[in-house]
Amino acid sequence: MQPPKTAIRRTRNIGTSNTTVRRVGVGAAVAAVILGSAAPAFAINPGGGRHRIEVEQAAGAFHATHSQTATRTAHSAADDSFLDQELYKLRMCESHDNYQDNTGNGYYGAYQFALQTWEDLGMTGRPDQATPDMQDYAAKVLHARAGWGPWPACAAKEALT
pTM above the 0.85 mark? Predict the structure, then answer.
């Protein structure tokens, strides 16, 4: 017994420049020729409606996921902005926003890090010699680990929560 003969029909996806080649049975090819362009899509491709719905559902899921991601990103940006404001208050209290602060009391930089704390955060050198970005990063890491506890006096004075 021979396999059924097939015809190759080219279809173009609407809205893209992709061209796909699909093998269809001879019966479907004949129906497509007989019905011509006046036939509805489901008459030529009975499964077309199902595929269209799957594509629309996938697109809906894509948009929902990206919408949630955008919302999370917006919340994250707002949280970061709020934390940046809180850290500014902390810097003003600890060192008057002086990243090179070294008063000889064993605490260094804008956030008045102890050397042991600085090293425990994986940093090298002294905090007052590090860049402002590095000090800000270290303060955010320390805050994520321990909250405002490492800065009890200024946290209370500035009502940091």
Answer: no
